[in-house]
Write a structure and sequence with these properties.
With about 450 residues, the protein is an alpha/beta fold. The strands form two sheets. It has an eight-stranded mixed beta sheet with strand order 3-2-1-4-5-6-7-8, sandwiched between helices. Strands 11-10-9-12-13-14 form a six-stranded parallel beta sheet, sandwiched between helices. Strand 7, helix 8 and strand 8 form a beta-alpha-beta unit. Helix 11 crosses helix 12 and helix 12 packs across helix 13. The longest helix has 30 residues. It is elongated. Bound molecules: nicotinamide-adenine-dinucleotide. Nicotinamide-adenine-dinucleotide (NAD) binds next to helix 5. Nicotinamide-adenine-dinucleotide binds next to helix 5.
């Protein structure tokens, strides 16, 4: 079986590496971070991702890590690049890490005999794989793409918290290829790893790059549409976004996923991919209105929450507001661009005393929010003395709270349930209960 090297074994790369190793491939992870390398070589996962630590147990014969590109390239036939592509000011993605990795791969391909496939998994702007990666690989190695080595752009449509399941059971496999041989080789690998026989869409690299960011942009548009429905339902008598979105979701043209109505979208991919989509459209002279409006609606979802709190408390200066849930979704410790973090910052700017609680994201939040908020070890602590509470992320730990947990601890028991997890009638009898997407009447 082919040997595979994975450059960048972070949140996505390590999951890919572990899944490939579990399918029988001999996988060498390459990273710059010594902590990551050490952990992987000890069979441990340095990141929080459900199922990863278990998957890595017993894989030591198949999965190793190093910072040595030479060793990794020489001992593999296929190399995946899964390094970061941070957002840039104008909305695009920086290719500086991808460039650095490409140079090192190419330098080691120079004298390596035989065909080697390079697969770019990192998210890039359309055009970058050919203009930046292919250019560098050819320039530095002195070899010809499509002849001496192959190049594919093959992004993943995974969500943090379910990376292993998403990677092994994808709705679609997308392959942009420099030549059919490279596409065939990569398809074969996916067929070894995927448990669900997914459709494979193959074509040019440029089209695959567009498809990747278009998909995430579409999902953000759907979320913003659901949040618009939520606002409508809050303004009509008896409004209930769950009923409206259920009806829409049954239509096969629409589907139920991401149509709930709740907080704004966040995380490391959605906001930045949508902005990158806008930036790319403008770069090629197109009209980015739809993607830009999606983003605007998303930001307004935060303002709507803050406005409700101000409406309820008047001047919020010095008043305690409790935020339950900090991550951008459940089952992850990632707080990047999360709605709760935006709410905490906005409330802090208005002088509120913000307390936060989260089963997984506290450590990461502390690095960003510093001393500006109180970090509560439990929901009860977080609610103590609060005048308003926001259930921002429906972690199981919070779903089990009873009305008495709020009334017993809070100064004034007012609750905004962003995801409608509590029984409205029961909670409404005992405290002032508000919910995104439900009419207050
Ligand atoms: N995390 C996700 O949910 C997700 C989903 C889809 C796509 N992606 C894309 O995948 C890429 C990686 O994302 P991530 O979340 O895994 O990032 P990450 O920051 O978690 O991991 C990146 C890893 O690359 C390593 N690295 C950086 N430069 C390197 C170099 N020159 N050589 C070797 N290692 C290097 C870092 O040390 C780190 O361990 C990004 O382009 C991202 O947009 C991520």
């Amino acid at each position: 079986m082919d040997g595979i090297s994975i450059i960048g074994i972070g949140k996505l790369g390590l999951c890919v590496a572990a899944c490939l190793a579990a399918s029988g491939y001999r996988v060498i992870g390459v990273d710059k971070d010594p902590v990551t390398i050490k952990a992987v070589n000890q069979g441990q996962s340095p990141i929080y991702e459900p199922g990863l630590a278990e998957l890595m147990q017993g894989l030591s014969a198949h999965l190793s890590a190093t910072d040595d590109y030479k060793y990794a390239i020489e001992n593999s036939d296929i190399t995946f690049m899964v390094v970061p592509t941070p957002s840039e000011k104008g909305g695009g993605f920086s290719t500086r890490y991808v460039e650095a990795a490409s140079r090192e791969i190419a330098a080691n391909l120079k004298n390596k005999p035989g065909f080697h496939l390079v697969v770019l998994t990192s998210t890039v702007l359309p055009g970058d794989t050919d203009n930046v990666i292919k250019y560098l690989l050819e320039e530095v190695s002195g070899k010809k793409c499509g002849v001496d080595f192959g190049l594919c752009y093959s992004p993943e449509f995974i969500a943090l918290g379910s990376v292993i399941r998403d990677f092994t059971n994808p709705d679609v496999v997308l392959i942009g290829e420099s030549d059919p041989r490279s596409g065939d080789l990569l398809s074969k690998i996916y067929m070894m790893v995927c448990e669900n026989h997914p459709p494979v869409v193959r074509g040019t690299i440029y089209n695959a790059e567009v498809a990747k960011i278009a998909l995430n942009s579409y999902v953000t548009m759907k979320i913003s549409f659901a949040n618009t429905l939520a606002e409508i339902c809050e303004r009509i008598p008896g409004g209930d976004v769950d009923m409206v979105s259920r009806a829409l979701g049954f239509d096969s043209r629409i589907g139920r996923k991401y149509l709930s109505g709740g907080t704004s979208y966040g995380g490391p991919c959605f906001p930045r991919d949508n902005k990158a989509f806008s930036s790319f459209i403008k770069r090629i002279g197109g009209n980015a209105r739809l993607a830009e409006t999606t983003d605007q609606v998303n930001n307004e979802q935060i303002s709507r929450v803050i406005d409700l709190i101000k409406q309820q408390l008047g001047d919020i200066n010095g008043k305690k507001v409790a935020i339950l849930g900090l991550t951008y979704k459940t089952n992850t410790d990632v707080i990047e661009e999360s709605a709760s973090m935006a709410m905490a910052r906005a409330l802090g700017r208005e002088g509120a005393a913000v307390a936060v609680c989260d089963p997984a994201g506290m450590e990461n939040a502390r690095k960003v929010l510093g001393k500006s908020v109180e970090y509560a070890g439990s929901a009860g602590r977080c609610l103590e003395g609060a005048e308003f509470a926001i259930l921002a992320m429906p972690w199981d730990e919070f779903k089990n709270l009873r009305p008495e947990d709020f009334t017993g601890a809070m100064k004034t028991p007012k609750l905004l349930d962003c995801w409608r997890v509590y029984d409205r009638l029961e909670f409404g009898k005992k405290l002032e209960y508000f919910a995104i997407g439900l009419s207050p009447t």
